[in-house]
Write a structure and sequence with these properties.
The protein is mainly beta. It has one helix and 14 strands, in the order E-E-E-E-E-E-E-E-E-E-E-E-E-E-H. The radius of gyration is 16 Å and the shape is globular.
Length: 143
């Protein structure tokens, strides 16, 4: 077994600092901004109102779950409700009955029939850039 087996590379959702961690790590301090990075997958089954909801894992908002916050995650599945801007490194999925009220920036977006999405959407392969990249906020110029 190689030394790198069971490891994964992450980026801090706040400052985009790279970090290499064990596959079983649940949280780790960021080497860049020195804030805690949650890395485990989560299921939100309750009401959570915060300034920010950051996680480098997969987050699922269950049918009875509600998040009111700025959300930055690797992957997000919404079966309940999210109010606030969402940025995902990989994907956002809004299931039937799921509701998202806020702007979305992600490389891929899936919205099932019966889901609600109210907000501005930026989707595409270049959206996988670092979360604070100026490219995300730039408006393409005709030329």
């Amino acid at each position: 077994m190689s030394k790198s087996a069971g490891r994964r590379s992450l980026l801090c959702p706040r400052c985009d600092a790279p970090i290499d961690v064990s596959a079983s790590t649940k949280s780790v301090p960021c080497p860049g901004c020195h804030r805690n990075i949650r890395t485990e997958d989560e299921v939100v089954n309750d009401y959570q109102a915060r300034v920010e909801y950051y996680n480098e894992g997969h987050v699922e908002v269950a049918k009875k779950g509600i998040i009111i916050a700025e959300v930055r995650v690797r992957n997000l599945t919404i079966k309940g409700e999210v109010k606030g801007p969402v940025r995902a490194r990989e994907s956002v999925q809004i299931a039937k009955g799921g509701r998202l009220y806020g702007d979305v920036v992600a490389p891929t977006l899936s919205v099932e029939e019966g889901a609600v999405l109210v907000g501005r959407v930026e989707v595409g392969p270049k959206r996988a850039a670092p979360l604070d990249s100026p490219a995300l906020d730039a408006v393409p110029q005709a030329g």
